[in-house]
Amino acid sequence: MDRSFSRALRGLALVCSLLFATTACEQPAAHDEESADDYPELAFGHDEIMETWSLEGDHYVSPQLDAPLGATRVGVMLSTIDAASEMPELEARVAGEGEWVAIQNTWSEEGVHVGTADLPGGGTAVQVRIEASLVDAIASIAFNAVVPADPNVTPDDELGPEDEALPLVGDEPAVGLATEDLRSDLAGIGVRSRAQWGARRGRCSGRDGRRYRFAIHHTVSPQTGNVAAMVRGFQRYHMDSNGWCDIGYHFLIGRDGTIYEGRPLEQLGAHVGGNNSGNIGIAFVGCFDGVCPRSYGSRTPSDAAVRAAGRLIHKLSRIYGISVTSRNVLGHRQHSGQTTSCPGSQLLARLDTIRSLARSGGGGSSGGDTRPPPLTTPSTVAVRWSRGSDRTYTFTSTAPAAVVRVDYYVDGWRIGTVRRSASSDLRIRYRFSSETRNRRFEARGYNSSGAIVARAYGLIEPVPATAVSIRQTGHATYEFGVERAPSGVRSIEVRVDDGFLLRDSVSGNTRSTRLAVRYQFLGLRTRPFEIRMLDAGGRVVRTERRTFTLR
Fold first, then answer.
1. Under DSSP, is residue 71 helix (H, G, I), strand (E, B) or coil?
2. Is residue 472 within 8 Å of 459, Cβ to Cβ?
3. The pLDDT of residue 180
4. Which residues contact 274 (CB under 8 A, 6 or more apart)?
5. Angle between helices 303-320 and 351-360 in degrees, nearest 10
6. Residues 161-172: pLDDT tens digits?
7. How many CB atoms lie under 10 A from the CB of residue 400?
8. Residues lower than pLDDT 50 in the chain
9. Spatial distance between the Cα atoms of 247 and 265, rounded to a whole number of angstroms
C-alpha cells in the first residue's frame, strides 16, 4: 500500500500515480505480481473528503483516479469513526461514462473495512461515491484502480490433510499456512507471527531464497486504533482487490514498535515494481510525508518504530549475510525505475539512523511493548473471562483496592471501561466482530488521580473451538489453560523454551487435571510454550504451541 502522491486535486487529496513496469495492451492483462509494487490509488481523511469531493445531488463524488492499464476492479479500504459501525454503502464507476456499481464488502473488523467492485469493460479512470448523509461515519478511505492478478493457485488447492481440522471463519481457515513457521530468532526480537495477528491463509507459490537487500515503505494509512486489525485489512485489500496471493510486504511495523510478520520470508514479495527479487519489504504503518491527510496522525515516524526497524534489519542481515549499507537498505523510491515518493520524506530522512542502528546491534530491546512507564509500586489486576454461545465474552477483574477504574484492551484497542462502585465488580461484556486466534489482552487499573497503579496481560483466543488462554494472575505469575478441550482430554502439561516442564503452583503437579498450569517466572521475556492435552491414560490427544511475551 505504499503510494506515490502529490498536492494535486485542489492541494488536499492524496494522489497516488504509479507508473507500472509493464506496458498497457489493447486488452488489459492481469498485473504480474512478480513486478508489482502497487496500483494507482487515492487516499483521504474525513476532512479531505469534504474539501475535495464534489457534491452531486445527494452524493459526494470522488476526484477521478487515472488507471493507466485500464481498470476492471476498484478496491476500497476504509476505517469508520465508530469501531462498531458497518461499512457504509459505496459505489464505483468508470469515470464520466459508466454506470455506478455497488462496492461489495469483503471483510470488516473493528472499524476497518475492505470492499471491491468489478467494472464491466474497464476504463482508464474511475470514481467512487457515497451518500452525503454517510460521510460523517468515515475516518479515512483509500481506493485503487486495478487489473487484478489471476493467481494460478486458489486457496483450496493448497489445503492438505494436515489442514482439515483448522477452525473456520466463514468459508475459509482463520489461520494456518503451508509455509515455514516464524524463525525463533525473529520471535525473540518481538516479531508477531502471522498466527499471532490472525493472518488469512496465503496462496503464494513463488519462492525467493536469495536475499541481499531491503526496501523501506510506508502504508499511507492512519496510525490510530487497532494496528493488528489494520494489518489484517492490508492483507485483505491486497488479496481481495489486487488479486495477490498474500499481503505484499514481508514485515510491517506499528508506531509502538510492534513488528508484524507479513508475507513469509521464503516467498517473493510484491512491494517494489521490477525489484522484488532478493528484496525484503518492510513497511511502516502510517503516512510520513507533508501531504498526508491530517487525520492520519503524526507525519514523523516514531522513535519506537525506527528502533524496531533497526533491530529487525540487524537480525535479518545476520541471518542472510547482508551488509547494511546505503546501497542495499533503500527507500521504495530509491530503487531503479520507481516513480513514487514512498516511503515519504520524513521516513526517508530517518534511513541513515535505521542503518546505523542495524549496524550497531539493532536499536535496543524488543518492540511491541505498549506498557505505560514502570510503576513505583507495581501491582497486578487478575482478569478472568468466559465465552458465551453468542461469541460474547465476559471479562471480570480482581484488582487492588486503590483501583477505581479498569480499561480493557485487545491488540491495543480499548474495548471497554468499567468503574468501581458499591454494586460493580469491574465486569464488562464484549462481542468480537470476528473470531481468530492469538489476540493480545491487557487490563490497566487506574486510581482516583488517574494514574495507572495496576495492570495485567494475557492472550485470548475468541474461537468457538478448543482455545489456549494465557492469563497473568500475579507478579511474574501466569496461568496457561485450555478452553473447550476436545472430548477425552483429562489433563494438560505445559513446556517452555526448549522443553522445560512447568509445575502447577496450585496442585504442585506437572500434569494438571484442572486443565490449567500456574507458574511464577524468574525471567520475563518472549518465550515459546507448548501445551499438551492428555487423555486418561496419559496419551497426547492434541498439542498447541504459542509464543507469548511475559511482562
1. strand
2. no
3. 58
4. 21, 35, 336, 337
5. 50
6. 222 222 323 333
7. 13
8. 2-31, 151-179, 365-378
9. 12
